[in-house]
Structures
1.
Amino acid sequence: MTVKSKHVRIKGIKDGLVFLLDDKCPFEELLGELRYKVEHSHQNILTGPIVHVDIKLGSRQVTEEEKEAVLDILRGQGNLLIRSVEAMEAPQEEPAGSLTTLSGIIRSGQVLHHKGDLLFLGDVNPGGTITCTGDIFILGALRGMAHAGMEGNEAAVIAASLMAPTQLRIAEVISRPPDEWETRESSMDFAFLSDGVMQIDKIHNLIKLRQDLNVFKGV
């Protein structure tokens, strides 16, 4: 069997190996190449003493079953000890109005889109993008672009532990924050629309904003 594709890269580091798995190719094709490499073409580095392994699945969203399929192949090599798996979990179907939690790192060129409200545990790096139809809450640094309420919901908000974005967008309103946001004190801020203008406030004022909005709507 000859595998010509390069969907699986194995990189040696100081204290083990990193498996870099392509996040664009079909998953079954990825598994096939991974299985071939650990069973045939890379026996020289996959035999001998215990080797610690880190697995990186990029921006591919995987289910628990898919993650286990990858781990099963590597566990078949007795000397490989899995230390970490970096992947974005596939979101489950959620009822309207619920908050979905995802974790990872959004790197330059990567886009995470979610329908509904999102709690993201991790950083959004420069060049990375999160888009949501609802609210976006980031427990981490927002240094890329975030678009909340993208289907026209002007009541949506964007919050981050460190608010230093390249661009914010709520519904159709776009704001490019000033450079001095980098020096804002380290506390969670959120962006919202007030009379069609984007504003920034501390996260503890979000409940009051929502209460005032409900009063205004007569809820």
2.
Amino acid sequence: MSDEKKVAAGQMLPGIAGICMYLIFMTIVNAFAALQGRFGEGGPKYGVLAVCTLLAVGIFGLLRLKKWGWALVAAACMLLSVGYLFIFSRLHAGFFLVQGLFSLVFFLYLVRTEVRERLR
């Protein structure tokens, strides 16, 4: 049984890889949007770039199955979910509801015991 846990600790689940691919795509899109000034100038622009940088670092840490990468990505998924659902409650645009639910599902997947057991 202990040999199975050692083998499982070093293997990545397909869900982790899928979440990382989706989040790196969204990070790149938001970083380019911030550079083009879609979020405003000054503080908001640099705030979005800082969050994108932290998320990218967390994604690459999660791909290496590091606990700190998992923590950054799980926190980002929860914050993105809350943010998108808040924007949906104000604007009533379905896109934000879909994004918020995606982020919530990703967070719920990442906090599963099976996922956390595979981290180093």
3.
Amino acid sequence: MRSALLATLAASALVLTACGSEGGDTADPSTSPPRSAATSASDTAEPETATEPSSSPDLPDSPATARPPDSDPGTVITTGGSEFGPMLFDENDQAIYMWEREPTSKPTCYGDCADAWPPVLTDGEPVAAGKVKPRLLGTTKRRGGQIQVTYGGHPLYYYVDEGPGEVLCHNVATHGGLWWVVQPDGDPAP
């Protein structure tokens, strides 16, 4: 009994340690560029703009989104199973998160926050796969001009220390707020 309790406590500490520290910079772009290749461009002050998810009722919730023939393919957002139920992943099986401190499409995770939680970036229109609802996919402009993928109007992120298929940081508080995996309906997993 005592061994099981110690193992549970050790596993809980490992998950909390794996998801970063409580501190962090959520708005100061003057820190050094994030470590991740996904966020290698500098984040200098520039107005953010967003493309809202399509609200057109005639768009199907299909496994793929049609793109104009001349557009670059964007980041593929798909779904997969997890202990939290179906959730969003990218095409490389990286778990995708949203942050409770961002109730709109305007990103506020910069500096140390973006070091730990690199934004899901795209060079073209994001592409829906699996059970992703194309009408919920959108984009927003980050400081420095990078385009970040949104879902249901919320900016999307990865956790830097997770490998493909790993989901270690659901409902974990870092950088002043909770991070949640995202369900196909756009809501955080319970």
